[in-house]
Amino acid sequence: MTLKKKLAMGALSATLGMSLVGAGTWAAFNDIEEVSASVAAGTLDLVVDEYDGPVNFNVSNLKPGDTMTRYIKLDNAGSLAIKDVLLSIDSIDFTDYLPEGGDPDTYGQNSAEEYLSQFKVTLLKTGIEGAKEEIISSSEEITLADIYKATNPSIKDEGAITKLSGAVAGYWVEGRVNLASMAQNQYTGLPVDPDDFDAVELSIEFVEYSERDDRGVEEQNKYQGDTVDVTFTLEARQWDGQEVTDRDMDESGYVETNEEANNGDGF
To answer: Which of 213, 210, 233, 220 is nearest to 117 (CA)?
Structure first.
């Protein structure tokens, strides 16, 4: 951006006659000043890491009654505070097991959603601020099928949405489950300042029940050999924009308040 200053015509009038006699050209006084502008965007960088053991559920040979638990560390490696981290199940890959050369009725056929309904989910979150927040309790009877049908953008099943949103209450944010801290203080979300991370405890239980047909065959037998690959998507989002003033910046122009929760407004 440039800034041009104009001089009054009176400063030129005394030499106007000389300029007409001579054959040369004369320029009015001029002074050009420049104002530089350097604009650099911050970085939004969510790190999903191990907290206590592996992150992924790469488990096989399960039976009804088994429970798997993973501890996931959510950290902020960027320069901008993270407002929330929204969980959804965007894709699955299901295989209904069929013995090689066998009869489809050997174990029974079922759909992906039926299989996902066999896995109950509980979800807890803790952070260095000390609060232990229960997002999904075991008593809510939320299954992978509920989360998949409620949060998958191509499904958005109203019944599943009602069940899941009612269970997670305030953690239901724009059709997904917020995993970041919602404590109303400087640790909301994942700020850079103060440095904070959240640890998420995710447990998945292969539910066990006994329902038999007239021959005494357990209904759950139809799930033997089935497999499903579930992809959880975690989206980290920034805080809303703010009107940046001198009080928000350091001497070099770095916007310090963008490292803080609540858009730098504080609590």
So the answer is: 220
- Check residue 96 and report its DSSP letter: -
pLDDT digits (tens, 9 = 90+) for 151-198: 999 999 999 999 999 999 999 999 999 999 888 888 899 999 999 889
DSSP 156: -
pLDDT in tens, 77-117: 999 999 999 999 998 889 998 877 777 667 788 899 999 99
The three-class DSSP label of residue 167 is helix
For the CA atoms of 5, 11, 15, 19, the dihedral, rounded to the nearest 10 degrees, stands at 20
The position carrying tokens 């350091």 is: 250
* 43 DSSP 8-state letter: -
Helix (H/G/I), strand (E/B), else coil: 176: strand
Cβ neighbours for 171, distance < 8 A, ≥ 6 positions apart: 135, 177, 178, 179, 182
pLDDT digits (tens, 9 = 90+) for 113-134: 999 999 999 998 876 556 678 8
Say how many C-beta atoms besides its own lie within 10 A of residue 151's C-beta.
Answer: 24
